[in-house]
């Protein structure tokens, strides 16, 4: 059984790694927050098979050597066309597969479904003269990424200046492993072969290659399955130095380490973003709790200290007014002017008292409100936000004071309108003895009806004003405290998604660890 060029071990692990790579690549591209740098390169590096570049002069036997290396026998279809009439000006790449050949510029890719191409690709370059004339750049592109260079000489002729210029570049510029093939040994005498080996060693020493790896082969003998072709030695060397289990394991470990570095980097990105979102979520939740609690605090206090106080005072004042007016009607014959004076005094006293209730109580509530804001901004989940936006708290307090001032002016203005309209529907007349009883009953009923109406007006007005004020202030405060509310909410909405991605990345890390354990030798 011939020695394979590359180990076919770890196929299961390769498939698992390829699955992780594909899923990870897809995950990263679907989530712009993740760093995609070098992932495509890792994927390409993983999928790039071990490759061998063959270089040599035209008629050096290079194509025949490659066919024989891949196990082609006499009478079988050649992979690399050989012979004097063959066009040799293109680079030919042989890969495993069933596809039709692909041609792009000066590169031809051929696919052969043969076992010897499993996990590798062979690159056959034009003759060295053609390389130096017009294919230098494209050949160099392949040299940069190859695993091994096989330089093929005719067994009895290594004397080509252009060849050695290229060899110096391969060793010193590209720093690639190189082996030398003295091909067509069946056409050379033993002494010619030995002379070529000595000359080749001397040339190698001149350019700094110590102990060059030289193989003497005969493609004709190998393709005829005869002994002494020299190909088994080539295969054993390639397997040992390039394609062994150990080398393949090293390649997979390199890919795993690069992939692990990428995943670790993206886990850090996610961790940072998740922590940021968690901070925003705490900030957001704390503010919402504060706003809900604050709404109830303000509602309760304003209703008790302003609405209920005003309604209570107003009802008491109206009752007093009613008693005075009724008393006037019972005891006085001319009461119109007296009642008007009482109404003027009633409006003045009530208006002053309303103003005092509103000013005093709103001021007390505002002071308590500012204490609550101070306390709220001292919370850890809020403190960082305040640190990032140092004017937020001060600005918020300033704005709330302004909201209270606007509310104070509004409530006084609207209450004043109610007072101006109070009792205008009642026609007060001077009383005579004849209609004393009738007018007293009538005015009593009218005043009582007006009092009920006024109390309902005041109550409804205060309810509307308070509710509108609270809702408006709550909206403005929330907007001020959460100026980037939509952005914050979007971030919070992404929290679960990022946590799920993080769990997926963690699972990839565990799978990589399992693969790494499986390929240990």
From TrEMBL:
The protein's name in its UniProt record: HSR1-like GTP-binding protein
Organism this protein belongs to: Defluviitoga tunisiensis
Domain of life: Bacteria
One Pfam family in the UniProt entry: Dynamin_N
Matches recorded under Gene3D superfamilies: P-loop containing nucleotide triphosphate hydrolases (3.40.50.300)
InterPro entries for the chain: Dynamin_N (IPR045063), P-loop_NTPase (IPR027417), TRAFAC_Dynamin-like_GTPase (IPR051943)
Domain spans labelled Dynamin N-terminal: 98-184
